[in-house]
Amino acid sequence: MPISEIEVTRGIVEGFTKDFLDSLQLDVAVAGAGPAGMTCAYFLAKEGHKVAIFERNLHVGGGMWGGGMLFPRIMIQEEAAEIVRGFNVRLEPFGDGYYVSDSVETVSKCTAAAVDAGVKIWIGVSVEDVLIREEDRVAGVVLNWRAVELANLHVDPLAMEAKVVVDATGHEAGIVHTVMRKIPGARLFTESGQIVGEKPMWAEVGEAEIVDNTRQVYPGLLVSGMAANAIYGSPRMGAIFGGMFLSGRKTAELATELVRAGV
Ligand code: 48F
Fold first, then answer.
1. Contact (Cβ atoms closer than 8 angstroms) between residue 218 and residue 188
2. Is 20 exposed, middle or buried (0-12, 13-18, 19+ CB in 10 A)?
3. 3-state secondary structure string, 120-141?
4. 236 CB less than 6 Å from ligand 1?
5. Beta strand 137-145 with 158-167: parallel, antiparallel or unpaired?
6. Which residue among 57, 95, 194, 224 has the highest number of C-beta atoms inside a 10 angstrom radius?
7. Minimal CA–CA distance to 178: which of 157, 199, 200, 163?
8. pTM of the model
9. Cα(49) to centroid(ligand 1), Å
């Protein structure tokens, strides 16, 4: 039975519109579909939360695809292995307490797990700003097409409400930077109240500190993955990824607490 172009168009627009409208009021909005954002969203969806990820690229996976210097392998430590195994990723033991996995397999399977758990992933969509409500609480995401940004077109964004917003934008920590730029005198829940900034590579320290750095950094706004280290002044760690998965899982736990507390 042939299908007309108009029916193809209707199917796509109706499907998109239904899901988009359904996402207008989220429990948790995650900016960035790297390992941290994806893991966070997966655990939240498994708990029954309404969660969406907004990824400005056309592809998900963030810095994971390219492994180390384009060798498509990533290193994962024992502490994070159970999370990655939960995505059905095959892990090759390496030395004492470490594993190597195929980065393409890891991205694909963790994406599949998140989608199966109920996460909605919007690609080509940038979080360009946040919604702010009483007492400067972050209360949602302001969205635009990445293509609009790249073309430098003056097009107003749309918005979705969320009880909690997660900055999982990696090294940029773009959502926290936006909050600091747009709210005069804003103070983060860091010691100085300011963004400390990412330190040069030191894998051992970066991995040791990332879970502790995974916190609510501003009312209604959590930092996850490399964004957490970038805000709290910890080192980067290169192609070892266990901390990203562990940070993602902790972010889900913190977000769950905030959603339950009705923040
Ligand atoms: O960079 P990314 O993979 O962050 P992560 O989950 O993991 C970091 C590791 O990949 C690696 C590392 C390992 O030791 O250091 O760097 O913390 O994923 C971040 C994603 O966020 C997207 C970006 O395209 C990437 O896919 N992103 C960044 N800014 C925005 C955004 C934005 N404003 N709106 C939507 N997506």
1. yes
2. middle
3. EEEECEEEEEEEEEHHHEEEEE
4. yes
5. antiparallel
6. 224
7. 157
8. 0.98
9. 22
How far is C-alpha 41 from the chain's CA centre?
A: 7
Q: Is CATH 3.10.340.11 the classification given to domain 5-261?
A: no
Answer for the pair 191, 107: CB distance below 8 angstroms, yes or no: no
Can you give the three-state secondary structure of 45-105, one letter per residue? Answer: HHCCCCEEEEECCCCCCHHHCCCECCECEEEEEHHHHHHHHHCCCCCEEECCCEEEEEHHH
Q: What is the rounded CA–CA span in Å between residue 48 and residue 45? A: 5
Query: pLDDT digits over 117-130, tens only?
Result: 999 999 999 999 99
Residue 108 beta carbon below 6 angstroms from any ligand 1 atom: no
- Cβ–ligand 1 distance for 36 under 6 Å, the answer yes
Our answer on whether the CB atom of 230 is closer than 6 Å to any ligand 1 atom is no
**What one-letter code names the amino acid at 3?**
I
CA angle 177, 144, 10 (to 5 degrees): 155
* Ligand 1 center from residue 260 Cα (angstroms): 27
Residue 175 alpha carbon to ligand 1 centre in Å: 12
Look at ligand 1, atom 22, and give the residue with the nearest C-alpha: 32
Strand partners, 127: 143
Residues with pLDDT less than 70, the chain: 263
